[in-house]
Amino acid sequence: MKHLNSIAVLAAGIALTACSTVNTTLAERHEVIEMYHVFDIKTKADTATIAKATSDGLSANTNNIQTAMPLQLGKTIPATPGRFSIDDVAAGMNGQNSAMLKMLANQSGGLGLKVANCEGAVWTSKAVRNITGSNNLTLYSCLYKYRDGYNLDMYAVFTKESGGLYQVIREGANAIAGTPEAWVNKTIVDAVRSIERAAGARAVHVEGQPELGPLPAVDQLSAK
């Protein structure tokens, strides 16, 4: 009888372990990642040329892009470039609207509803890429003109989905086309490459987090 009880306990343990493994695999996960990168381009090219090149590079890998070129009335070109900052939209509001925004922020992994503040930039953009069931990217670009050229500050909020019933499909697509992270890197790199072609100058990566990782295999074709 004791032997049968031991077998029953062991079987129950195995069943619970198997159930836990299945739940872990099928659980849907949403991961929110922030990143920023700053590039320096020393060139005498005019602002319109650099802005168009950046926009063209971004549009190659995004669904929608909004741009703005603020007037620079009375402003002189500074010796050093400006720098973007990050604003939390929910933190600056009160009342019911603030509560709703904070609830949405909690659903975004607790990062808040953050946007890039491009104060002083000569050109700005917000590019978006949405791939249902896979990933979403919002990428802000701030172009700062200074005496020797331009700085391009890029800030991204990237949401990646994993797990669930569609994970096998995602893994197959990633193996063929590249991971979502690789495509975020390519979106940034392609914008910089477009500037380099238009300016006839090399861009220098000044700083950024996390490090720019590998690009999708298809990049070897599009980069030529």
From TrEMBL:
Keywords noted in UniProt: Signal
Signal peptide annotation: 1-20
Protein name listed in UniProt: Lipoprotein
Source organism phylogeny: Bacteria, Pseudomonadati, Pseudomonadota, Betaproteobacteria, Burkholderiales
